[in-house]
Amino acid sequence: MKLYHGSNQIILQPRLLKPTHPMDFGQGFYTTTNYAQAAAFAKKIVKWRGGTETVSIYELGKVPLNFKIIHFKYPNKKWLDFVVNNRLGKDVSEKVDIITGPVANDDVYGVVESYEMGDYTEQEALKRLKVKKLFNQYVFKTQEAVNLLKFLGGENAGI
Question: Quick one: which of 34, 39, 35, 36 has its CA closest to 6?
């Protein structure tokens, strides 16, 4: 499977870094199967830190059977609470190697934030999320998981 990572530079050898702000699925190396999503994230990173809008491309190798994986197929209460807790800075995942599921991008996060603040009930938030175009993310939480990514190349994502 091909995965994309948007950044302000090519990432030849991915590694786990301490995030500068809370993320959907906590600390990890974030990728997606959607090139446009990675390019949009690269644009955001360049605005924050400078550099060049870049998408690094990887091939995911065979995942060992003993890896712990959490997979959220779609937004539900478990996903919503998991994202809210991580965005609040509480990395709530136990020892896990990979997490996959919908990304709470800027469009989606308004709904998540309204739920977090109590403006939306769980049912209202999930109803509103159903009409959003949700992209996926694959987050590699351990260095062993990151090491499964084979770098295929990188390209300027500027439009």
Answer: 39
